[in-house]
Specification:
With about 325 residues, this protein is α/β, with parallel strands linked by helices. It folds into two domains: about 160 residues, Bordetella uptake gene, domain 1 (D-Maltodextrin-Binding Protein, domain 2, 3-Layer(aba) Sandwich), CATH 3.40.190; about 120 residues, D-Maltodextrin-Binding Protein, domain 2, CATH 3.40.190. Strands 1, 2, 3, 4, 5, 6, 7, 8, 9 and 10 form a ten-stranded mixed sheet that branches. Helix 2 packs across helix 10 and helix 4 packs across helix 12. The protein is globular.
Length: about 325
């Protein structure tokens, strides 16, 4: 039987619309099983803490467990590569920060992936200031005093970091470059060991992530000279920014969630909506503010632009400082 042209076109249009309808229905039903949220670092750090906070929120909102999976190694590259190669179905997500997404793109010569090409931004969570910390026994008590001391004693001030290419390292290198200082970089295998030696006086300065350093400041065990964000941190309102002494200086760590490229846009949109709802929740906001974090709610496109901008910015610092991975 020959179908009338109008009926044929109506049926064809309806058939063409079915895949889109199925995708929308699938996104509305998502998730139907547990979701893996991969953290590419060891447990106990800021990424772990934030992943568990947002994972619990998403579990409650979406009705399925968000299982935190620690996949440390190679500065975050091991866990990142695992997610890049996972199925793009919304059931494997990556907790990202500045190191594996933006800094490693230049720090490592040969990566099996291109983060900007192979990952899809889902949503930002928070921006975290770093604090320029010194031991209480160290004589400089302000940033100008530290700069003057370092210039008078070239090569005699040791700067700890959480490892080559980590946010504390690149923040310190940017400080050295802008202030024209000869300061010795001492890399550690993580922020914890770096803090231990700073507390013990084996090194003099450290750009610590605020979330993991603030209790030492509150207890008077470490002296904060400045925060690295463009604005002062609400958690430490009396501590100046480095930009007040070095105009244009800004550095921070930031966190969010990405998914493998090709993950359905409807699933990404749903996750983004729930992440933003979590960041607006009073209890979540209070907990994150206590960690010194600044909310980074927004669209996937806005988070993607942040990653791209930071990749370009830190690429320049990595090249200028001739940084190499450990």
């Amino acid at each position: 039987m020959k179908l009338p042209r109008r009926l044929f076109l109506q049926l064809a249009a309806g058939a063409a619309a079915l895949p889109a309808l199925w995708r929308v229905a699938g996104a509305q039903a998502y998730p139907l099983r547990p979701v893996r949220l991969v953290v590419p670092f060891a447990s106990g750090g800021a990424s772990d803490i934030l992943a568990r906070l947002i994972g619990q929120w998403l579990s409650e909102r979406l009705g399925q467990p968000f299982v935190i999976e620690m996949r440390p190694g190679a500065g975050g590259n091991v866990g990142t590569e695992a997610v890049v190669n996972a199925s793009a179905d919304g059931y494997t997500l990556l907790m990202v920060n500045a190191a594996p997404s933006a800094i490693n793109a230049t720090l490592y010569d040969k990566l099996s992936f291109n983060f900007l090409r192979d990952m899809a931004p889902v949503g930002g969570m928070v921006r975290t200031p770093l604090i320029l910390l010194v031991t209480p026994s160290f004589s400089p008590k302000t940033v100008p005093e530290l700069i003057a001391y370092a210039k008078a004693n070239p090569g005699k001030v040791d700067m700890a970091s959480a490892g080559n290419g980590t946010p504390p390292h690149v923040a310190g290198e940017l400080f050295k470059m802008m202030a024209g200082l000869d300061i010795v970089h001492v890399p550690y295998r993580g922020g914890g060991p770096a803090l231990v030696d700073l507390l013990g006086g084996q090194v003099q300065i450290f750009f610590g992530v605020l979330a993991s350093s603030i209790e030492y400041v509150r207890a008077g065990k470490l002296r904060p000279l400045a925060v690295t964000t463009a604005m002062r941190a609400d958690a430490l309102p009396d501590v100046p920014t480095l930009g007040e002494f070095l105009p244009g200086y800004e550095a921070s760590d930031w966190y969010g969630i990405c998914a493998p490229k090709g993950t359905p846009a409807e699933i990404i949109a749903r996750l983004n909506t729930e992440i933003n709802a979590g960041l607006a929740d009073p209890k979540m906001k209070a907990r994150l503010a206590d960690l010194g974090s600044i909310m980074l709610a927004g669209s996937p496109a806005e988070f993607g632009k942040l990653i791209a901008d930071e990749t370009e910015k830190w690429g320049k610092v990595v090249r200028a400082a001739h940084m190499k991975p450990e």
